[in-house]
C-alpha cells in the first residue's frame, strides 16, 4: 500500500538541464557531454557536490569546476554552467503532483545550490511557490549540508513523513540517486520524460493522473 510519493525537483518537475548543457557545448565547439562528465567524475566530492552541500562559495566552485573539466579535455568555467540549470516547469507533472497530494503524503528531496549562487536560478528562486506548497516536506541539500545519493537524506525524509520506505514511490532523473531509495525498499521511477513518468506513477499508485 502506497503511503507517500517523494519527488526530485530538477529534471522531474522541470525539464532537464542536460538539454541546455548539450546546446552550450555545441555552440562553443566543446567535447560532447563535457559538463555531464565533469559532474559525474568523483561525484561525491567534486566541485558540484561541494557546492550543493554549501561547502564552497561561487568563486571556488567556478575555479574548481574549470580545473576538473580541463582534466577531462576542455576548460568550462563553473559560473558559465550555472545559468544553464533553470529548466521549465512541466505542467503535466505539476498536475500529477496535485492529484497525488489529494491521496498520499508528498515530499521533495532536491540537490540544489546556495540561494546566493549568482547568475543562477538554482537557489530558492527557481522553485515556484505554488508547486513547493504541494509538498508536506522539502529537503534542500544546500540547507542541510547533505546531498543525494547520501542514504541519510532519504532516511530523513521517511522519518519526517512518518512512513515506511517500502510504501513509498521515489522519482528522480538520475539513476545514481534512485539506487539508495531502491535499497531502502522504495518503488523507484527513473524519469526520462513526463508521459513515461506519469504512466509508471499511475501503475504504482493506481491513480489516474492526467
Automatic annotation (TrEMBL):
GO molecular function, one term: hydrolase activity
Keywords: Acetylation, Hydrolase
Entry keyword annotation includes S-adenosyl-L-methionine: no
Coiled coil: none
UniProt keyword Kinase present: no
Pfam family, one: Hydrolase
NCBIfam families linked: HAD-1A3-hyp, HAD-SF-IA-v3
Protein name: HAD-IA family hydrolase
